[in-house]
TrEMBL record:
Protein name: Serpin domain-containing protein
Signal peptide residues on this chain, from the entry's feature table: none
Pfam families (alphabetical): Serpin
Family statement drawn from the similarity comment of this UniProt entry: Belongs to the serpin family.
Domain Serpin: 26-341
UniProt-listed SUPFAM superfamilies: Serpins (SSF56574)
Length: 341
């Protein structure tokens, strides 16, 4: 397969293409929240999925693979995907840790079995445009040692796990479980994303205390709530509210108009500010976490469906001004990683 050429930005509407990707992210959110995350908390990264699929669209596999990816991502060409990828790397993944935060880093990797024929320029595309680790590996071979068969794919799996661990400051260990890579594997595409930020207005630890947390199944539990008496970026819409909590920003005041959302879900609500559906957004140098809250406890599914079926929903529902909310509370949470097979 011959790789796609480098994208011509003059002929591609990158902003429109990016808006398509945000809509796709909400569709994935809806599917995830109705299955894996229906009765549990879940986090996923649309931008990582987009990066991996963009890499896959340029890899060996034939036009049918690229066509399926383009159809899913609602893109007209791999050049368009590459243009969005380039913008994400230069704006969304811009690291501001040196001047106040947040710290953001992302790295891509492509591992292709050495028996597959590839175009000679593919290595240049991945290493110089995608800035990805590119390696030809051996998934196929097996060796016999003391009556045991050792598959080279297992060694590759360990190397990939080491790669993910090294590029996430050791937070992600054993990303690929045993058996996830075998002698039947042709290619592996990876995106390691690391984000570390502090709230622009921190919650005081002394104000954190246990309160009632109402679950969607009608029961309740006691969980620690973070509290604040500061005004908040909060706006009420028809049937739901949106909360915006900014992260502490760097000194770069450049205001880019390009934004991208990450996914965050919760299955519960409370009587202060319920933890409905949330997302992390980077708008140039401005990083923010959003919470989307239905007015009624049993309307989270309906809200998610509305978000997924309304093009441009995220951009049309952004709180711009701070308002007085008296005592403000949200459940304390920690984001960890996991892999569903």
């Amino acid at each position: 397969m011959k790789p796609s050429s480098f994208p011509s930005k003059s002929t591609i509407d990158v902003e429109k293409a990016n808006n398509n990707q945000k809509d796709i992210a909400l569709i994935v959110s809806k599917n995830l929240s109705s299955t894996k995350a229906k009765h549990s908390n879940s986090v996923f990264s649309p931008v990582s999925i987009n990066s991996a699929l963009t890499l896959a669209a340029s890899c060996p596999g034939g036009s049918s693979v690229s066509d399926e990816i383009l159809s899913f991502l609602r893109s007209s060409s791999t050049d368009e995907l590459n243009a969005v990828f380039s913008k994400i790397v230069s704006v969304v993944f811009a690291d501001h840790s040196a001047n106040g935060g947040p710290k953001i880093s992302s790295v891509n990797g492509v591992w292709i079995d050495k028996t597959l024929p590839i175009d000679s320029s593919l290595k240049d595309l991945f290493e110089n445009f995608f800035k990805a680790v590119f390696d030809r590996v051996d998934f196929r071979s097996k060796v016999s040692f003391l009556l045991l068969f050792i598959c080279f794919a297992e060694q590759v799996r360990r190397e990939l796990n080491k790669w993910a661990e090294d590029h996430t400051n050791g937070l992600i260990k054993d990303l690929l479980p045993r058996g996830s890579i075998s002698s039947l594997t042709n290619c592996v595409y990876g995106n390691a994303l690391y984000f570390k930020g502090a709230w622009q207005v921190p919650f005081l630890k002394s104000n954190t205390r246990d309160r009632v947390f109402h679950l969607l199944n009608g029961t309740s539990v006691a969980v620690p709530f973070m509290s604040s008496y500061e005004n908040q970026y909060l706006k009420a819409y028809d049937g739901f509210k949106v909360l915006r909590i900014p992260y502490r920003q760097g000194d770069d005041e450049t205001n880019h108009s390009f934004s991208y959302q990450q996914g965050l879900f919760g299955d519960a609500t409370s009587h202060s500010f319920p933890f409905g559906q949330g997302g992390y957004s980077t708008n140039g140098s401005f990083s923010t976490m959003y919470f989307y809250l239905p007015d009624k406890n049993d309307e989270l599914d309906d809200l998610v469906k509305t978000m997924a079926s309304t093009s441009g929903f995220l951009d049309y529902h952004v709180p711009r001004c701070k308002v007085l909310v008296n005592e403000f509370r949200i459940p304390k949470f920690k984001i960890a990683y996991g892999l569903d097979n």
